[in-house]
Amino acid sequence: MPPSTSPSSIRTLKLPSGETVPVLGQGTWKMGEDRRRRDDEVAALKLGLDLGITLIDTAEMYASGGSEEVVAQAMEGRRDEIFLVSKVLPSNASRAGVKRSCENSLKRLGTDRIDLYLLHWPGSVPLSETVEAFETLKKAGKIRHWGVSNFDTDEMEDLVGLADGGNVQTNQVLYNLSRRGPEFDLAPWSLKRGIPLMAYSPVEQGALARNARLEAVASRHNATAAQVALAWVMAQPGVIAIPKASRQEHVRQNAAALDISLTAQDFADLDRAFPPPTRKRGLEMI
Ligand SMILES: NC(=O)c1ccc[n+]([C@@H]2O[C@H](COP(=O)([O-])OP(=O)(O)OC[C@H]3O[C@@H](n4cnc5c(N)ncnc54)[C@H](OP(=O)(O)O)[C@@H]3O)[C@@H](O)[C@H]2O)c1
């Protein structure tokens, strides 16, 4: 049986603002799409909170707001425990659009503030306008911090060159053992500046949970392939993993992955099975 107890402690890292967040969060894409699954989704998120996985990631896009409503239910009565992340679509990233989207997200989330509000991916609205809108929301207390998602290194360079662009708190990107492209330059660039990467799809939407090469390493830890995939992501400096799990057993296993210490042999075997990048590749998106 894989370890599935609660972790002995939740490791944390610091955002540029100095605020501490757990290196493991809970994703919510595809939640809220089917009313019949809602009770299970809420129960899974609540269990995650009980186990100390207090960072929750959602977006206005997910189930057209339905995911934010599931998150609202899971947060009931315990908002202050949670570091809440949501996202605005690039098509809503204008001055007026950001304000409207944020108000709508706050309503669906049943809260007065979002802890970290991200631009979901780069779009056609000038970035300076979106940054200005984020800063206005910060002053109004509607969001506490802002960041971006799916930004490659050149886009991050442009961002930090803008007025207030240096206030970016994270870049949420596709990163897992089978998607190691960011290691070539985005990850070192971000680490140098103290901007954490938030790794989405850390188990490649479930595909890595069925990977035989991961199972070989997992067997040495009495763990599952998915747990090793997660432990590997969380072992990378300056990286937060946000797996989505709607089954309680998966939530328990993901929390327990915090207690897996991969050895030098494990890392070497994983490098052979999933080689790191040797040249720049454009940032991939799911
Ligand atoms: N910014 C962006 O553009 C972007 C894009 C994609 C995702 N995201 C965010 O990142 C989150 C995570 O990414 P994702 O949902 O695409 O993929 P993921 O977390 O890599 O994979 C989710 C899938 O893996 C399964 N799973 C979770 N834990 C497992 C375990 N311990 N053992 C076996 N299977 C397990 C889940 O099953 P069950 O649900 O059945 O438990 C689900 O089918 C999203 O939910 C979303 O919040 C952001």
Strand content of the residues, in percent? 5-15%
Structure ligands: NADP nicotinamide-adenine-dinucleotide phosphate
Number of strands: 10
- Helix share, percent: 25-40%
Structural class per helix/strand content?
A: alpha/beta
Q: Look at the structure and give the CATH class.
A: Alpha Beta
Q: CATH-wise, what's the superfamily?
A: NADP-dependent oxidoreductase domain
Q: Note the overall shape.
A: globular
Compute the separation of the termini in Å.
31 Å
The major sheet is characterized as: 8 strands, parallel
- Strand and helix order: EEEHEHEHEHEHEHEHHEHH
- Please identify the oligomeric state: single chain
- Compute the average pLDDT: 96
CATH architecture: Alpha-Beta Barrel
- What count of structural domains? 1
Q: How large is the radius of gyration?
A: 18 Å
Which fold name is given in CATH as the topology?
TIM Barrel
In the sheet with the most strands, the strands line up as 3-4-5-6-7-8-9-10
Q: DSSP helix count?
A: 10
Provide an overview of this structure.
This protein has ten helices and ten strands. The chain has a single domain, classed as TIM Barrel. Helices cover 37% and strands 14% of the residues. Helix 1 (38-50) runs parallel beside helix 9. The strands form two sheets. It has an eight-stranded parallel sheet with strand order 3-4-5-6-7-8-9-10. The protein has a two-stranded antiparallel sheet with strand order 1-2. The radius of gyration is 18 Å and the shape is globular. Residues 1-5 have low confidence and may be disordered. It starts with 11 loop residues before the first strand and ends in a 13-residue tail after the last helix. The longest helix is centred in the middle third of the chain and has 15 residues, at 95-109.
